[in-house]
Amino acid sequence: MTNRDAAVMAMIGISAAAFLISDGEQRRVRWIQAMRRCLLRMHGIIRYEQPGLGLLLRRIDLRATQQERELTRLLHACAQRMETCSNPKLMLLFAGESAKLPDYGVLSEEDRTAFECVLGELGQTRLQEQIRLIDSADEQLRAREEMLARECTKRARLIRTLGLAGGAAVFLILI
Q: What pTM, to 2 d.p., does this model score?
């Protein structure tokens, strides 16, 4: 392999790594979007079907993104564990299940708060109160999503630019 080939490979590698890192910046936004879709689905199920908590969790079936599939899996696992618990607390079950998923860890405490507060109240309050809590949490997540989307777009653009510039610099050094 010549110096020129090595320089091209290094440039491509650094640029590709920067694009991969910049894509990772969007994971938090995609998780919040998945939570909002989940809340919307819960709202509809509670309002029109009024199921028990375990059935509500099993009825959530979101599949559009990886984050939605993971969130669906978490809620289904919680529903399954609720059947075997003598005194199930959904929030504790969800915390236990989400701790097993490293991808959920990209969310900050502030990102998770609204969604997890709803989980803490499901099945413990009247249906109208649950619907009100879901609407409030959705509004909080919408505001959070907008703010993160703006921040992530700026950071992703900066990371891509630095990656391309770094790749070009390495190319020039190695030639």
A: 0.79
